[in-house]
Design brief:
By secondary structure, chain A is an alpha/beta fold. Chain A is built from 13 helices and 9 strands. Chain B contains 23 helices and 19 strands. In chain B, helix 2 runs antiparallel to helix 7, helix 7 crosses helix 8 and helix 21 packs antiparallel against helix 22. The two termini of chain B are 40 Å apart. Classes of the chains: A alpha/beta, B alpha+beta.
Chain lengths: 304, 664
Amino acid sequence: MNNSLIHKAINAVCTKLFDKQQQVEMSFACLLAGGHLLIEDKPGLGKTTLAGAISHVLGLTFKRIQLTSDMLPSDVLGVSIFQPNSADFKFFQGPIFTQLLLADELNRGTPRTQSALLEAMAEQQVSIDGQTHQLPSPFFVIATQNPTDDAGTFPLPDSQLDRFMVSISLGYPSADAEKKLYESEFLNQQKIKLPALISAQQLNAMQETIAKIHANQEVKDYLHSLVLQTRDNKLFVNGLSPRAGLALFRLSQALAYIANRDFVIPEDVKKAFLPVASHRMRTLTTQQNPAILLKTILNETRIP
Amino acid sequence: MAKIQLTKYLLSSKQIFWVLLSVTISVLPHLPRLPLWFPILLIGVILSRWLTAIKQTKPLPKVIIILITLTAFITIVYFQGFKLNREISVTILAAMTVLKILETNTKRDAWMVVTLCYFVILTRFFYSQDLLLVIYLFLSVLIITHTLFILQHDNKKDFLGKRELKQTLGLLATGLPLAVLFFLFFPRLGSPIWGSPDFFGNGKTGIGDSMSPGSISQLFSDDSTAFRATFKGTIPNNSDLYWRGPVLWDFDGKTWNTNQRQISKKTFIASNDTGTLVSYEVELEPTGQKYLFALDYVKTAPTGSTLKADQQLITENDINQLRHYTALSQFKTYNSNELLSPEDFARLKYLPPSFNPKTKALIQQWQRQVRSPLELIKKILTHFATDEFYYSYSPPLLMGDTVDQFLFETKSGFCEHYASAFTVMMRAAGIPARIVTGYQGGILNEGYLLVKQSDAHAWAEVWIQNKGWLRVDPTSAVSPLRVEQGSQALIRQNSRNWLDNSWSRKLGERYDAIRHNWNKWVREYNATKQKAIFKVIGFDSVNGRAIIIVLGTIILITTLLVLFFLYINRPKRKQSPYDKIQKKFKQLFLKHGLTAEENLGILEFSKKATEYFPQSKNSIQQFTTLYLRLRFSETENKQANLDNRLLKIIIKIKNELRTKDIKE
């Protein structure tokens, strides 16, 4: 098994985003596992930079939409326009017809637009005017949202959040890394567009390899016990769904691939647990932070 | 993290419900003896807490809780007086336990309240050790302990499942042997604690110090136990079982009363009567009065009581607790050891002047026909037996000249009607007579004589010149069955109400037998009996040393047993060989000063270990890679060479770490 290609891509992205090796790895793992990525953070922490860098490195067709409250579903999906010459309707594809879509500030869009986008994400196809249009493959969505900025936003319901396999937050860079930003050398480097390192075919091949990565019974038991505990804990509104459990499994496989192993170890699951679970869980009262509760679960479950 | 800690200790509404239930159940048996405002406080506090739990509103402000508590405290002290006695202490304990509910917000509070409930329950035993109460308290202890269990298990959905209840029962069962041993060996008070009247299943009606028509017949429907008697030898015939209680001297035309005048002991005169002696032990249920019941005629008074000249046994205090006494009686026809003064004779012949003229006339007519008092007695009894008199426990009500009405009109009555009529007739003839109340008969129940309230009876005593008191039971003339076979024979013939059948009576008698044994083995377990047990195990006297040795041994043995069972049932975590070897690996570094959280995956651990022991970097990596490959990969042959290869690396690391130590 050779995963040097993916490491090359990860390292390339890391030149754009200092000190965020883990988050970059997690983003790649998510894409390798075939899931959509949600980046939740405050403005100015490099959400868009990360999404852009990934799209460049992957050599996929890339489009970006900035969601606003006056955006309509047709602005995302495309629109059929009457052609006077042929007396016919012609479908003009919207920005969603791309291999990698960056949906910036997802929670600023109206529920209607959000819904249209998220439907497309789930079905990998778009139905307009009775016609079904297949989306390209691979198809990834990287969405960002700013959780603290409440005014004029439409928070995504739980069922929609479930469509994202992974959520990450970037956080502030370390002091050294942040100071590096001010250097002119870095600023110049930022302007250079990253070359495409992985082709769509190569990506497909990797995904096939990852799907075959082995996980033995012990690992599966550990994974399942984590999922069960989110369901048993009465402080949560709901536990993790089977879909979420499957996502956790796929992400663990992808992480094992990045770590150059052909088998999953419990620590892959442990690593994947928070990114998969934290945006899916809601606590009964606002006093509790789901991430902290999930960490307690991780600490209290014996790792094999 | 602080926030989680807090939520971990918050109570769910289900848990609050159980805490409220525990408090209610433990305070409930206290209610009859607590002040009247207490139930209102209880209901108010519980409702308010329950509402807070359901609506998830904020608890009452601290200031208000403090105010309520102070008010309750002052009210208690105001009404019960400021003194440190048992009454006030128990009231304060109960009140504060109830009030603590108001500020029960976290688990710690709940544990405290529930633990207090045990104490509240315990204090109930100050007032009674009745079997019924003990059963109730056992059930409440079960509920309280289950509440503790529920407080421990947040995530349980089903609190009343078989497994959950089994766990609580198991917990209680574990404590049982210890409780029994402490019961046997813990130092006991020489005398029982005398208390105020008890309300738990007691405070019943019984024979009192006055009698009017209807007062005894109403007891006929009461099957509760009056007392139990255990005879040394064979049980005498039913017709000899006259259990003497209050003796009634004074008649006001309707009601008979006891002799309020003090009769000094000196009025006894020695007699050398001969008659069968019978010795027996009586276990008297609380009556709230001062009378002891004993067979006619008492030879010696039981300890703690005085034998009055008219053969009444009187105690110093009201009998509010189960009372045990041994008595010696002698059967005889005439009782002559009572010295009567002229005033006494006057009282014994007195009748209210204008009452019952018909009776008086009849007696004057009969007196002319007979020559001696004995003949008159016989004539009256024959009249009762031959004329149309009926024995009935629900006779018509009598007004005005009750004896006239009874003798000439209704002709239907219970024992008190016949005894009263007979005594009035005797007095009308100028013969001294009085009424004795008590019980007659009893049924043999599993080795002892069970006397129920329905055995209550009244009979007459007539003074025969030169011979003494003669017992005359006019009831025997009307209903010989009542005296020869007891009231139970009557009940068997005619049931008193729709609930009355032999099956329910049997059940009651069976229950009484259990109570009797309970009283005998538990309530009457006193210092003397304890001394005997100490003697059995080799201590001649119950002194501090003996108690310390015995209790110490019990505690030691129990602790060892508990530890033993804990060891046997210790949770066996399935430990695979991989777990063992991982532990060994981690131990290497922990021994050399590495600190790490317990639940760390092996990769994270190795990373940390490499930071601290960089010289072993290669070996650590070698171990980790091999370990993970062996344990989790698909291709490796699982068991082969497992220990060997990994152990070899461990030994290598061990040496590396040791050389590092030496170098330093």
